Automatic annotation (TrEMBL):
Gene Ontology BP terms: xylan catabolic process
SMART domains: Glyco_10
Naturally occurring in which organism (per UniProt): Arenicella xantha
Protein name per UniProt: Beta-xylanase
Residue intervals of the GH10 domain: 1-346
Keywords: Carbohydrate metabolism, Glycosidase, Hydrolase, Polysaccharide degradation, Signal, Xylan degradation
GO molecular function: endo-1,4-beta-xylanase activity
Length: 347
């Protein structure tokens, strides 16, 4: 029947579920997810700022609903994401009375966060995104100067994996990041991960976020990445796939976007609907990507799209407001797009 069924001999096909969908108990969308997908990720509700906004405060409601949905419908369940520099309260990195926090105290907070979350869903969450995005965007060859790194040094990442593995020895543990195909980033990460595998740090695989566009990255760059990480013995997940159809906004940033007609037209070229020609390009791009994934099905465990319908994609209004994007497999009315049919035709 659904998309996931078509690829059931290859890999899980998943979708991220938004906090709104869970809290509103949106039966139309949840029904669609149940029919089409075999794996689910929480888009935001398990992030530190949402689930653990203050030291002794936990908001379990949306996350519990997410786990309940996944369990009831027999989905491969992702936990997302334990240790990240983003969407985390600044108070985590602040000591008593506003003094700088000690390394020991911060490690304690990290352990408490991981233990509480992983323990609650032990035996239910199949795979955790343990650590997210540790590489600097400046040259891609060094550690990101996040508070985690600045206070704890590079070992914060290893510590997170060891803590998660102790909390649920049966869960699969991933490192998750974007642009993992950049040569400098690939070089840096394979160095870190090879050392982990050598020393027995518990990590099972890597997540390629796969926030792609119509042209970038090229297929052979993606394939080279698949081969490089797989040769190390790591399992591969495509964790947040979407295909941006809009021009790169960063090329125009700094311009008076909202007041300058020329720029706003360039940045939001499809305010009403996606022209048939671009629909076709998107379909071709998705079909080529899925054909590549099928080719490497022995090492790819899962392909998850970051959302379900274009209406709710984080790629709308990003990185500037007012943009209408079309990155997913279902349109704003939750109807399957040409891209969906193109993927189905592979099977
Ligand atoms: C995004 C969500 O989709 C948005 O709703 C939120 O405002 C910001 O985060 N990398 C990740 C995801 O690992 O958690 C991010 O999700 C997208 C980038």
């Amino acid at each position: 029947a659904g998309l996931a069924d078509a690829f059931k001999d290859d890999f899980f096909v998943g979708a991220a579920i938004s906090t709104d969908t869970l809290m509103q108990d949106d039966q139309q969308l949840l029904g669609l997810i149940d029919r089409e997908f075999s794996s689910v990720t929480a888009e935001n509700c398990q992030k530190w700022e949402e689930i653990h906004p203050a030291e002794n405060q936990w908001n379990w409601e949306a996350s519990d609903k997410f786990i309940e949905f996944g369990t009831q419908h027999n989905k491969h369940i992702l936990g997302h994401t334990l240790v990240w520099h983003s969407q985390i309260p600044a108070s985590v990195f602040t000591g008593d009375e506003g003094l700088p926090i000690t390394a020991k105290a911060l490690l304690g907070r990290m352990e408490n966060h991981i233990n509480t979350l992983v323990d609650r869903y032990r035996g239910k969450v199949n795979t955790w995104d343990v650590v997210n995005e540790v590489v600097s965007d400046n040259g891609y060859g060094s550690w990101r100067k996040s508070p985690w790194f600045n206070i704890l040094g590079k070992d914060f990442m290893e510590h997170a994996f060891r803590t998660a593995a102790a909390a649920d020895p049966n869960a699969e543990l991933l490192y998750n990041d974007y642009n993992m195909h950049y040569p400098a980033k690939r070089g840096f990460l394979t160095g870190v991960l090879a050392d982990y595998l050598d020393r027995g740090v518990p990590i099972n695989g890597v997540g390629f976020q796969a926030h792609y566009s119509l042209e970038d990255p090229e297929l052979d760059e993606i394939e080279k990445s698949i081969e490089t990480y797989a040769e190390m013995g790591l399992k591969l997940h495509f964790t947040e796939l979407d295909v941006d159809v809009l021009p790169k906004a960063f090329d125009y940033m700094g311009a008076e976007i909202s007041t300058n007609f020329e720029y706003s037209e360039k940045l939001n070229p499809y305010p009403d609907e996606l022209p048939a020609m671009v629909q076709e390009k998107l379909a071709e791009r998705y079909a080529k990507l899925f054909a590549l994934f099928v080719k490497h099905r022995d090492v790819i465990e899962r392909v998850t799209t970051w959302g379900v319908t274009d209406a709710h994609s984080w790629k709308n209004d990003w990185p500037v407001k007012g943009r209408q994007n079309y990155p997913l497999l279902f349109d704003r009315e939750a109807k399957p797009k040409a891209a969906y049919h193109a993927i189905r035709r592979l099977k």
